[in-house]
Design brief:
Three copies of one chain form a homotrimer. The first copy, chain A, has a nine-stranded mixed beta sheet, with helices on both faces. Chain A is built from twelve helices and nine strands. With 273 residues, chain A is an alpha/beta fold. Chain A has a single domain, classed as Ribokinase (UDP-N-acetylmuramoyl-L-alanine:D-glutamate ligase, 3-Layer(aba) Sandwich). In chain A, helix 1 crosses helix 10, helix 2 crosses helix 9 and helix 9 crosses helix 10. In chain A, strand 4, helix 5 and strand 5 form a beta-alpha-beta unit. About 2% of the residues of chain A have low confidence. The longest helix of chain A is centred in the C-terminal third of the chain and has 22 residues. The interface between A and B is medium-sized, with 29 and 32 residues.
């Protein structure tokens, strides 16, 4: 498994995929730079008039609804349709789904318009996308997961089945699941939550790994491990007086230097299912 | 007074308020990171369809018209109305008011739609919001303040009365006034003006301190002192060859580590009125 | 020539021009900070209602179509018309022209609406703006330039004539040409392409130098040299473990400290034509 994870990570630098992003304006610069750090290339274009053309030039799609509005929502649907037609991977980051009706509806609309390959969000965002009557939702109401990692992993597998997508649920322990198997990943630092957009950046890494053509579960898991590991490496390099702004830079810098072998050596995880 | 200022600053980390920002796309990432550095959480959402919902989830509102357009202007009015209904604090940064008719009108419209708790801007922005026939405007035409700090402080108190809001007028000396009292604050470095968005970031700190529930005058004064002090701390840490981009990071880093006690010890100010 | 280049660079700090930017939301913060680093001031405003007013307050215009949409496209036309009426310099960065019909049309529309002083882009962007039937396009199909620098320089002079604008074509060797003369510039580092927005930042420097009132060819050449030289200086300062995010900061920092004399001493170029 370590070899597969390393290969998925290295494949981004080998394939250098162009990833089309429709994303929020808060973290877009960091998203672009971390995509470049990983070895892929970002293209941001959100005007309905050109969005399908840009999707066709790209190898993968990354949709992030963090500052969605009606104009960009329409463009996301067009991009999702085009990417699906082309067989491109689609990563959806449903930022704030569950927090407003617009966001929940926007995320669900994208999932209906196209074939989402992988979702990355926190537990409340992912839960808000599960059908209200679903068994998965019924069992685990609220924003918590079972305390036992094994039970949480089985929840994630069930959620992945229900959503028909790989899911990456990031939190204290990160869960990356498909319909059969779940990685529970222990990398990362709590201080990462004091930086805006570490979630968006993790999604961008997953989109890059998917666009490079690796198996979706492995691509998403490698991206989540890489982000966590970069958080650890960057934290160890912080000097006296440095805070969240420099930490942000050092995380992207760590991704820039991270090799597949280092990822495989530094990843801490269990596999369930 | 020092204890009150320290308490207002520490209260942000204790309360961890969620602050709803409708802001410009130039400095939004720094605004989010400095909000997190101070211990609050930012949420950016500007679509009319969801803006009131997001305001309801939050504890305070921060409106910044730096890159305003008609769509976002409408959303700001909805957010201001909702925040006022809920009794939330509203910080308005009237970027460029006076420089274009749109901006002056947008800022005034927000002040009519909602109860603005505090305004932060430079002197020309604040002056543009004073009614044309007001006594305050008549006395001090142009973009200058009286040279005597005492006279400037009394101008600020009069302006605060006229605007029915705490005002933070940042410049060579920063003035933070309510209807009774004015802080003249001497912290800061001239090099801060070579970084884009230090004003926006100061507004974000004030919005966070207001959302944490402190008395508006004290909250705004503590934020202005914190920003100036962080500019001093960060400047002292600059190494050879470092310029405005690294200085920006080091200022946010300094906020990340600044305690209420350090703020009280480092603040340099007089009180008038 | 070295004296003219140094003078064009120093003139930005002497004149401190206000530059009106309508630009993309991916790199806008870096664009603002590098403009300040160079000694100019940026103002970002893209609402049709105020765009002409802001153009009138400024000394130069910088249009970047990196994330264009219909709303901003209209505003760019208004700004270009107003700047032309006022005799202001206009720098156009036709990001992605040739990659989508919208972008090619948007860039051409701006060139028809106003008098573009200088264009900065990569070779495929610049080529997409040449009339399809033009001799220049016919000779050099595709995204490549002649391998011989001399031939490439003569292509650039012909392209400048056809486009009736100074052109700065950045790539492995940067070409900056007007209708008579071409600088071939050898500064820069390949690692700069791993940072988002180094092209946008180079355009912002050119816009600042133009707005300061220097001769367009010299202003554009000085900006391209400054950007390349800053990339070299910043690279030499990178420490172990630092990657593209810190490199971005160090480049802006290097611009902050770069003097006209250092630019003249560090610039490596030939002149053709």
């Amino acid at each position: 498994m370590k070899e597969k994870l390393a290969a998925a990570w290295d494949r981004v630098r080998e394939q250098r995929p162009l990833v089309h992003h429709l994303t929020n304006y808060v973290t877009v610069n960091d998203v672009a730079n971390i995509t470049l750090a990983a070895g892929a290339s970002p293209v941001m274009a959100d005007c309905a008039e050109e969005v399908a053309e840009i999707t066709r030039l790209s190898q993968g799609l990354c949709l992030n609804i963090g500052t969605i509005n009606e104009r960009v929502q329409s463009s996301m649907l067009l991009a999702a349709q085009e990417a699906t037609t082309l067989g491109h991977s689609i990563l959806l980051d449903p930022v704030g789904a569950g927090a407003s009706a617009l966001r929940t509806r926007a995320a669900r609309g994208i999932m209906e318009a196209g074939k989402v390959t992988a979702l990355r969000g926190n537990v409340s965002e992912i839960k808000s996308l599960l059908k209200e009557d679903s068994h998965v939702q019924g069992v685990d109401a609220g924003d918590c997961l079972p305390e036992s990692t094994e039970e949480a992993a089985h929840w994630a597998i069930a959620a992945s089945r229900s959503l028909q997508s790989v899911i990456a649920v990031t939190g204290k322990v990160d869960l990356v699941a498909d319909a059969e198997k779940c990685f529970a990943i222990y990398n990362g630092r709590p201080e990462m939550s004091r930086i805006t957009g570490t979630g968006c950046q993790c999604s961008a890494l997953a989109a890059a790994a998917l666009a490079a053509g690796s198996e979706p579960l492995i691509a998403a898991a490698a991206a989540v491990m890489a982000m966590g590991l970069a958080g650890e490496i960057a934290y160890s390099r912080l000097q006296a007086g440095e805070g969240n702004s420099t930490y942000r830079n050092r995380i992207i810098d760590a991704i820039y230097h991270l090799s597949g072998q280092e990822l495989a050596e530094g990843a801490r995880y269990g596999i369930y299912g």
